[in-house]
Each structure stands twice: as C-alpha cells, then as structure tokens.
C-alpha cells in the first residue's frame, strides 16, 4: 500500500518559504532544520507533510503540479495569504462561477484556494 508522505516544493530562499508555508498552512518544521531541506508537518496531525527543498529549479508555467488548498471561508483565507506575501494570479480562462482562486507564494509557486465552505461541493 502507498500513501502520500510529503509534497515537495522546490524553493530558492528556504528561510522565507519556511516562514510563508508554516504560517499559511499552520504547519511546524521537523527539527533540527537542515541547510537545504525542511519537512513541515501539520500541527493538528491531520494531512500530508509539505517539504521545502532548496534546489535551483526552472519555473514552468503552467506548473505540472500544484496544491489545492480547501478553505471554509475562501475570502478570509485569500486575504490572510496575501498578508503573508502570496499574490492572486489572473487567468483569463477562469470561469465566472469557479470555486477556486489561483495564487502564488512569494517565489511564484502556484496553488489554488478552493471554496469548501458549507454547501460547496469540494
């Protein structure tokens, strides 16, 4: 049997991305920290780990893989993520009734914030 143990994101500035993703997801780093790699795990114990790997990598758009982050209050979460340094990404093909917003972290790694509030089919 297989299970997802960690989703790995390549980063240039490990310290900055560590601050962003721990705050964004309410995760904590596994200690001791490594110079080029950080494993982040959910404080609640629920959900996959997210690892940050400080390895130079060419940015490809659209990305081949991205995170879908489910939010009970999408507007509040988007505002909170923007305050942490994330930015919204405009995509002209996004349907008007889409339940997601495309965002990117401070280094341009893209993710979606999905409206998973009550009554939404996430």
UniProtKB/TrEMBL annotation:
The lineage of its organism: Bacteria, Bacillati, Actinomycetota, Actinomycetes, Micrococcales. This is Glyoxalase. It comes from the Bacteria. CDD domains: VOC. Residues 3-116 form the VOC domain. It holds the Pfam family Glyoxalase_6. PROSITE patterns: VOC (PS51819).
